[in-house]
Amino acid sequence: MANNQEARLDRFLRGVGPEGFKKLENSVVTVVMDSPVGMWYAFPFAASGIPLRMISTAQIEPPPEDFEGLKENFIGIDLAQGNLAHAYAKAFRKFNGDNIPANKIASLNANLGFNGTDMLLFASSVVIDCTTSLQSKKIALKYARETNSTLISSAVVPGYSKAALWHPELDGASIEQALMPEMSLLEQQTLEMFGIETSNGLQLSPNAQVTRELISMVMGGLVAEEAVRAILTDIPDKSEELLQTPLHYKFGHNSEIFHPLYSGDELFVLECEDFLEKAALLYGAGSIGNMTGYSLVKMGFGRIANLDSDIIESTNIHRTILFYGMEGKRKTHSLAKRLSAISGGATKTKAIMKKLKEEGWDPEEPYDVYVDGFDNFAARMLVSQQGLKDDVVVASLSGRFDGFNADLYVPNHTICLDCNIGINEKGESDRAKQRQSCGREITPQNTWMNQSVGALGALQIASALYPGKYGTPFNGMIFHDRHQKSRLFANEKEGTCQQGHNGEITHYDR
């Protein structure tokens, strides 16, 4: 592996190890897509140096006149008109620069439309079919069964997504789970529910497209985790470590966000107009700040500031996706610049080059939400305390190599982060360790866990700012743990902390 690639992926290599990375380098992940949903399923592999093949016949065309201002882009990289897979491949190569060989990213203008097209999947270690096409999924499953390889089948519609893994060693996912015939029908229903007539025919409204993109970020990261896990798992000795039950994400459904879509369940779709006057302050311009900031811009936030004191290093790039080509520059200024560009200037951004101190601070402007994207409990404790002091929603988001946490404090609706996860005790312990050592442990990181939790956090913020309209704000802990069979958990708690958390808690059950 070239030195520049090794430096860039240092934090990722710490997690999988040299042998694990060699396995990944010698594999091929094929992503079959029929819409921009596929972008967030494919990108984690391209950014991590894992050979990627994308297959699609979908085309990128100028948006209808009715959708003025809506332009296809990927993290600020404009997508060329033409075949979707080719456009993504070009954008991913631009993101990687010279750090990862361009020939690791291939694209085909094709689809899995009839028998014989399974030859397009030749040599795939893992096939990810994120289309809503039953025929495409049948061909992908046929390939997996004939070659004893892994299929991860997934689909996303506005408000809901689902994923299931099929592997010959498992009895977990049935053939019907992998084929997902209900998702094809659901796609048509959501188009009728959230579509509008345009000069190009019936299309999803811009609001529905944004909702679908954010949900694809959540599910795309979860699927990438399962794909890498499948490649690295020794079969059959550890086949029980593979995903055996389908994953679900259902926006706005409180403690049931990870449950299947039941008959009668409402599909929530964002109305970006709601957020034009909303403001967010991102504490930390790292990977969480990048992913959540991007998501909030897509949601239509009118104002986003970010606070950080670090400089962009080469090891940041594959996770902090908005910093491509910006090594050596200040994180906070770079993030503000990229978020403004992605919004087309619609979102006002501000860079705050500052280190958060124990005594706190008084932001010069009011904010509706604080996003805690710091990577240590000492700093996260300070954000929590600042949110209590200012009576502001706090979304505390943490991506780990083996999972993520999303914890939300909503004044008068939920318990605070100290009552929820004991943030003060953890923060004081972390601060004591920092005083005893001038060095800092560098922990493994990947792209996809931060991608998932960043988008998930943004969607949770929608529920916090508009209780009821986008579901009730969740009170408790939301997390992903790769070591658990179910993977995703929403542990609900009861009670609320009084304003400013003056020591009084109403009906609080830890």
Query: Termini distance?
Result: 48 Å
Radius of gyration: 22 Å
Biggest beta-sheet profile: 8 strands, mixed
Strand-residue proportion: 15-25%
- Main sheet: which strands, in order across? 16-15-14-17-18-19-20-21
Shape descriptor reads globular
Tally of extended strands? 23
Helix-strand category: alpha/beta
The proportion of residues forming helix, as a percent range, comes to 25-40%
Low-confidence stretches: 506-510
What is the average per-residue confidence, as pLDDT, rounded to a whole number? Answer: 90
Number of helices: 14
Question: Would you mind describing this structure in some detail?
Answer:
The chain is an alpha/beta fold. The strands form six sheets. Strands 16-15-14-17-18-19-20-21 form an eight-stranded mixed beta sheet, sandwiched between helices. Strands 7-2-1-8-9-10-13 form a seven-stranded mixed beta sheet, with helices on both faces. A two-stranded antiparallel ribbon has the order 3-6.
